[in-house]
């Protein structure tokens, strides 16, 4: 139960106006507009119930200006709960320290996680950049290959055209040769053919002479044998 009495801070004394209001926390038991209380601040309107959530004042109920717009809101503050005892201050202080430390650890973890995410994002961007350069290099390589193939095809066509020109030139040179030289070349070719046939006939002649000589030798042998047979027959 929230305690409040006429002995609490006055509605408009020097302690009721501050330069800064404490931070607050949601509380269903002490919230909303305090219509049942007196008009206690400069607007002469009901105050707003709030619960402090700041340092050793955490948990204390107070009344404050109910204006929603910042330019209309004043810094009226009236504490409903008295200040906590020394032991309560110590407990709240420790709880706040634990809370602040937990927040610091959470922030530190978030920063660390953020740094890791930043590194991961940086590494991802670096890999994407390398992949982009690789794609550009690959595209350039493909283009260079296609250009080289095109140049090779052009070179082959040029070589084919050159060969055709050379053949045409040979035919033209052959057609433009002196007829006398053509006849002379033909005669020399026929002469060489006759010389070759003559040499072949000489070889055939020598071969026939050897065969004839051999046959003559064999013929003399037959004659001797016939003569011997005749002598033997005459003896009988």
UniProtKB/TrEMBL annotation:
Organism of provenance: Hordeum vulgare subsp. vulgare (Domesticated barley)
Keyword terms of this UniProt record: Coiled coil
Protein name stated in the entry: Zinc finger GRF-type domain-containing protein
Entry superkingdom: Eukaryota
Coiled-coil blocks: 145-218
């Amino acid at each position: 139960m929230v305690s409040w009495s006429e002995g609490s801070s006055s509605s408009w004394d020097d302690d009721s106006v501050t330069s800064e209001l404490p931070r607050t926390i949601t509380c269903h038991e002490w919230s909303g507009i305090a219509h049942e209380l007196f008009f206690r601040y400069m607007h002469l309107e009901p105050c707003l119930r709030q619960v402090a959530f700041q340092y050793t004042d955490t948990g204390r109920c107070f009344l404050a200006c109910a204006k929603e717009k910042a330019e209309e809101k004043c810094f009226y503050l009236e504490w409903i709960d008295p200040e906590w005892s020394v032991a309560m201050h110590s407990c709240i202080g420790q709880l706040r320290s634990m809370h602040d430390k937990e927040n610091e650890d959470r922030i530190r973890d978030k920063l660390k996680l953020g740094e890791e995410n930043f590194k991961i994002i940086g590494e991802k961007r670096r890999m994407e950049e390398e992949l982009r350069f690789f794609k550009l290099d690959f595209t350039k390589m493909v283009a260079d290959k296609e250009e080289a193939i095109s140049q090779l095809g052009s070179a082959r066509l040029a070589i084919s055209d050159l060969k055709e020109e050379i053949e045409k030139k040979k035919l033209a040179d052959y057609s433009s040769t002196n007829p006398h030289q053509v006849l002379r070349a033909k005669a020399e070719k026929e002469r060489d053919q006759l010389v070759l046939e003559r040499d072949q006939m000489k070889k055939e002649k020598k071969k026939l002479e050897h065969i004839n000589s051999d046959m003559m030798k064999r013929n003399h042998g037959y004659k001797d044998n016939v003569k011997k047979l005749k002598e033997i027959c005459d003896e009988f």
